[in-house]
Design brief:
single chain, about 300 residues, alpha/beta, eight-stranded mixed beta sheet, six-stranded mixed beta sheet, 14 strands, about 30% helix, globular
Length: about 300
């Protein structure tokens, strides 16, 4: 298993940067999220273009160059211990080639938090920088603002990661068994979209794959999983943990798709871990060695997510 570098955990008073690499941010939600962070005794700083909107494409938070510059500056600031994304949507892929990856590497290990569209950054940070990242809630996202379970799990992961080494499923094993490996994954659509790019994880990655998504009907989930199968991305995967599938149609049909597309791999597959776009989503470390116990519905990290 290829172990990635674990960034240092946060301490009270740590400075964290909030960036918007994807879609536009609602100012009121951002303010509420910043208040939560301050309540944790963190010092949040907001990147200059977080509240921007692209002049031509309103689904983007500012221009590609400005979003990339915000992210670059935040990560390379020696006073910043973590970079937290404000929201997802779409846009990360448009700015990836504008980042100076050597400068990001030179800045040293820090904490990166986000999910959904941020999956593209998780993949790149693993393949390019060799860093553990956190598939977790975003500062201006509705679930983070209203759900104390989501807040508490992220806070524990950031400050006391040894206290949240086991994540429990509320569902069942679609394929029984146990498996070990290094975690990777995130939003299914983004993992499929990154295939063939210079930032994608290779088929040699293997390990435990975490998958979730939102707003994809069963046939589109089928298509995305089939793309992963045909590309070879699942060849060395040892186990699969499924998260939330908000707005993805009747779950019974979705379960049939999972069983059909993933059941033949001969590896443990467990549903309903809840990470991703669903309510009360836990923070999932990516790049950490873990054991998936399908029969008991648990994913247990071998070491805390952060050092």
């Amino acid at each position: 298993m290829t172990h990635l570098i674990r960034p240092p955990r946060l301490a009270p008073g740590a400075r964290v940067a909030v960036v918007a690499p994807s879609g536009p941010v609602i100012e009121e939600r951002l303010a509420a999220g910043l208040d939560i962070l301050r309540g944790w005794d963190l010092d949040p700083v907001v990147a200059p273009h977080v509240l921007d909107r692209h002049p031509d494409f309103p689904y983007l938070a500012g221009t590609d160059a400005d979003r990339a510059a915000d992210f670059q500056a935040a990560w390379c600031d020696p006073e910043v211990s973590a970079v937290l994304c404000a929201r997802g949507g779409y846009g990360v892929q448009r700015m990836m080639d504008l980042l100076d990856w050597e400068a990001l590497r030179a800045a040293g290990p820090k904490v990166l938090v986000g999910y959904s569209d941020v999956t593209a950054l998780h993949e790149a940070f693993a393949s390019r920088l060799g860093l553990v990242t956190l598939h977790g809630p975003m500062v201006a996202a509705a679930d983070f603002l209203k759900n104390t379970r989501t807040q508490d799990h992220l806070r524990a992961t950031l400050f006391e990661p040894e206290s949240v080494r086991t994540i429990t499923s509320s569902g069942t094993a679609l394929v029984p068994g146990r498996a070990r490996g290094v975690t990777s994954g995130g939003c299914l659509a983004l993992i499929a979209a990154e295939l063939g790019t210079p930032y994608a994880r290779s088929r040699e990655t293997g390990g435990l794959l975490l998958l979730e998504d939102i707003g994809e009907e069963a046939y589109r989930v089928d298509r995305l999983l089939t793309q992963l199968l045909r590309s070879g991305r699942l060849e060395r995967v040892t186990g699969i943990a499924l998260g939330s599938w908000e707005g993805c149609g009747p779950y019974e049909r979705l379960r049939d798709v999972f069983t059909d597309r993933l059941g033949g791999l001969g590896i443990p597959v467990v549903e309903r871990f809840g990470f991703g776009h669903g309510e009360g989503a836990p923070t999932m470390p990516l790049g950490v060695a873990a054991e998936l116990d399908a029969d008991n519905g648990t994913l247990t990290l071998e070491v805390p997510a952060l050092a």
